[in-house]
Structure formats: C-alpha cells, structure tokens
Design brief:
Blueprint: H1 2-26, E1 35-41, E2 44-45, E3 50-55, E4 65-68, E5 74-76, E6 89-96, E7 98-99, E8 118-119, H2 123-126, E9 136-139, E10 144-151
Length: 154
C-alpha cells in the first residue's frame, strides 16, 4: 500500500513537471489583429511571392509573420504559430520571389538557388540589411486589411 502511494505520488509529480515544462516553452500569448492586403510587383499583381513582416523599431517582443500571394497578389499574414494576424506594432516588410527562366515557380524539392531560378524582388525589399523607410509599416491596434505593397521590379 505504501509503495502504491509512493508510486502514485511520483506519477503525479512527473505529470505536473511535464505539463509545467510544456507550458513554459509555449511563451506568452500574443494578441493578434488581422493583417492582409495586396502586393504589386512592377505595378502588377504577383502570384507566389513570399512576404514577411519582421518586427522592427520598438516592436521587440513580437514574432515575424508570413504569407504567400495568390494569383491576384492578395495575401494574409499568419504568425509563427500559424494563426491569423500579428500583434500591433512597427514591422519591416520583406519579400522574395524565385522564378525559373520561363516564369514558373521552381520545383518544391529543389532549393531555389540551385534550381536555376532567379530572385525577382529587388534587394532593397528582399534583403533585411538593405531595408529602409520604403518597407516599414505600422500595424494599428485594430489591424489592417488593405495594405497595398508596391515593389519595383528587380
């Protein structure tokens, strides 16, 4: 009987420890607001462009969010937990679009850089070290669903 209670106690302590650890690694819950819009590359809607909203300025506690444009250039940003939206704050927008010489997307099983594809987004939009005022945005407290991001052709 005594060993059964000891075993039960150890099991309970183990479960409490496991649940405590899993909660601790989850991090704080971010309050998300909707973030979406349209990307124009050279004035035209572009499909398959990967867009990333990187926290910047005083927005140091947020995580990045990403989206992919559809055939009309529309995107919706998902956070790092694949939830819709981002916390309000200042972000740097980065984009990347690798295309094959015939204008198609590279094969999914091959890294773009080794597939013969080339980056179609200018470095000032694709490279975080070249970011500036041109790709800084503020996501307001109630979100923003009408971003129009105009990127010149590379």
């Amino acid at each position: 009987m005594k060993s059964s209670l000891l075993g039960l106690g150890l099991c309970l302590l183990s479960l409490i420890g496991i649940s405590g650890c899993s909660h601790a690694t989850a991090g704080p819950v971010e309050e998300l607001v909707p973030v979406s819009g349209q990307v124009l590359l050279g004035g035209e809607p572009v499909e398959g462009l990967s867009i990333t909203f990187m926290p910047s300025g005083n927005n140091t506690k947020s995580h990045p969010g990403t989206g992919i444009t559809d055939s009309e250039g529309n995107f919706e940003i998902l956070n790092y937990r694949n939830k819709r939206g981002l916390p309000p704050g200042t972000y740097t927008i980065l984009g990347t679009l690798w295309l094959m010489p015939d204008g198609t997307l590279p094969p999914l099983d091959t890294p773009p850089i080794t597939s013969g594809a080339t980056e179609r987004v200018p470095q000032m939009w694709a490279n975080p070290t070249k970011a500036g005022r041109h790709n800084k945005v503020i996501v307001p407290e109630d979100g923003k669903t009408d971003f129009v991001i105009k990127i010149p052709k590379a």
